[in-house]
Amino acid sequence: MSAARGDEVELLVCTTCRRDAPDGAEAARPGAVLHDALMSHGLPENVRLKPVECLSNCAAGCTIVLRGPGRWTYVYGNLDASLVTVVAEGAARYRDAADGLVPWRERPEHFRRNCIARIPPLEAPE
Amino acid sequence: MSAARGDEVELLVCTTCRRDAPDGAEAARPGAVLHDALMSHGLPENVRLKPVECLSNCAAGCTIVLRGPGRWTYVYGNLDASLVTVVAEGAARYRDAADGLVPWRERPEHFRRNCIARIPPLEAPE
């Protein structure tokens, strides 16, 4: 399956992430705060926000994933609610790269420095 | 799309990983060594080995990914060629979990301590 520039992509946000919050803290979890901030901020067209329980990147949360059929999947970490505009910008650039591979210089600075992993599309040739 | 216990899964290995090798080292890259060691060791039935250029987990390589249609995808790090039996065992357990979610106690010790990220299947309900 191949994807086209601008096709719908998913932005997953780990909503269980505690980041620096102590265990048992009563306040909302930083991951949930990030998710809600993104929802309030609004996202670029064809970027679909989706909450996920635990993306298992606990050492470097908060965490998001950008993915879509036929594209490379990217995991980014060390995020917080102050970075919603960065996430929105990075998501738009990802959406506009048919294979998910955004040129290095076009990635937001935070994305360049905090890429946790990337995974090729299931359909990638060897 | 749903998966069944035992269905074919993919084991991706980052073959460009340098791990602790210095830049410009002439020796084979640790990621490529890990890949070749897995090929020589042999893998459980229905676990398909696939080399990938850069999984972008450079801070915690060598790196593998376990994935399959309809399953959660897992990224594991800090691996080397001495751990091929661990990787093979973990891959078999992953293959035998229809959704990719292997119970914590059944995961190899190294997998428990070195999970880099996990990503839900594209088909996961919200």
Automatic annotation (TrEMBL), chains A, B:
The lineage of its organism: Bacteria, Pseudomonadati, Pseudomonadota, Alphaproteobacteria, Rhodobacterales. Pfam families: DUF1636. This is Putative metal-binding protein. It comes from the Bacteria.
